[in-house]
């Protein structure tokens, strides 16, 4: 620097102006990144929700095990209105006995539920282990609309094959919404729900609080809105230790029913009840419900 010349001075307010502007730019950049990540999450949930909701087991049902054949189970097929042929297992009722139609949960397949329902077939009840599209080697893709079409086909099959127009509907987990919707659409003898929800939309909203889950959902399974129109007797069993569907859902389902309803909370039991209850308390509650239902039916018939 030449002698006698002073260094150029930066105005004192330049640094104060530079700092907040850089901070603002940084905050805007972070907000932009967060927004992009949030939109990516929204797109992922929107695009993958079927994989999040439905977890089908592709194992074909195959041949009937000997212990199930001994209580009248056989292989059967039904056609849906949209042209799908679905394979399932069923045990024909003994003379004068009602039929239980089970709509199972979102994972596994119908064969997994056979051990829990076999004792009822052994007692003479008809049992239909309804199998959905996309499960157990059946054609089609799972969806709420598809499940309801499948359910209508099964109830039509029971009515035409066994002359049973009013079966007892059993719904496990996601199948509880299917059972309640069918009970709203047609006359049924009774309903039994194992670990039901108020709606899948409610579950999604609680699980993904940072997303507009209700707006994104294509399969809301709104059980609660159907229940006031359901007049058939209802039994709800729920495990107190259920890690997937809070027991309060089951309590609210029972409270919303348009007919007589009973709520049974089982301490220490997970999800679902009948598949995680080695002591058999859930099955005992179901048997008691069915016994009382039979007595009421006989009393109404004057026998």
Automatic annotation (TrEMBL):
InterPro entries listed in its UniProt record: AB_hydrolase_fold, Hydrolase_4, Pept_S33_TAP-like_C
Annotated ranges, domain Peptidase S33 tripeptidyl aminopeptidase-like C-terminal: 232-291
Superkingdom in the source lineage: Bacteria
Keyword Oxidoreductase: no
Signal sequence extent: none
UniProt keyword Transmembrane, yes or no: yes
GO molecular function, one term: hydrolase activity
Domain Serine aminopeptidase S33: start-end pairs: 99-210
Pfam family of the protein (one): Abhydrolase_4
Membrane-crossing segments per the record: 26-46
Keyword annotations of the record: Hydrolase, Membrane, Transmembrane, Transmembrane helix
Protein name in the entry: Alpha/beta hydrolase
């Amino acid at each position: 620097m030449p002698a006698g010349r002073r260094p150029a001075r930066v105005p004192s307010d330049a640094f104060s102006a530079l700092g907040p502007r850089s901070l603002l730019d940084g905050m805007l950049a972070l907000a932009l990144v967060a927004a992009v990540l949030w939109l990516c999450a929204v797109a992922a949930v929107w695009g993958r929700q079927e994989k999040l909701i439905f977890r089908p087991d592709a194992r074909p049902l195959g041949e009937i095990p000997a212990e199930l054949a001994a209580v009248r189970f056989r292989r059967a097929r039904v056609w849906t209105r949209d042209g799908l042929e679905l394979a399932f297992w069923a045990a024909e009722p003994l003379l004068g006995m009602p039929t239980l139609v089970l709509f199972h949960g979102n994972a596994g397949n119908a064969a997994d539920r056979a051990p829990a329902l076999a004792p009822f077939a052994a007692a003479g009840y008809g049992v239909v282990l309804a199998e959905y599209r996309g499960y157990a080697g059946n054609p089609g893709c799972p969806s709420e609309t598809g499940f309801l079409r499948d359910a209508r086909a099964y109830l039509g099959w029971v009515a035409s094959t066994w002359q049973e127009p009013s079966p007892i509907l059993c719904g496990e987990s996601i199948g509880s919404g299917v059972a309640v919707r069918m009970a709203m659409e047609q006359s049924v003898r009774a309903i039994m729900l194992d670990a039901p929800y108020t709606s899948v939309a409610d579950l999604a909203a609680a699980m993904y609080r940072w997303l507009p889950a209700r707006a994104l959902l294509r399969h809301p399974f709104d059980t609660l809105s159907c229940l006031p129109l359901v007049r058939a007797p209802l039994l709800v069993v729920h495990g107190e230790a259920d890690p997937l569907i809070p027991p309060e859902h089951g309590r609210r389902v029972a409270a919303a029913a348009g007919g007589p309803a009973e709520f049974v909370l089982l301490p220490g039991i997970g999800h679902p009840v009948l598949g995680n209850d080695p002591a058999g308390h859930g099955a005992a509650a179901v048997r008691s419900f069915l016994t009382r239902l039979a007595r009421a039916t006989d009393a109404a018939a004057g026998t």
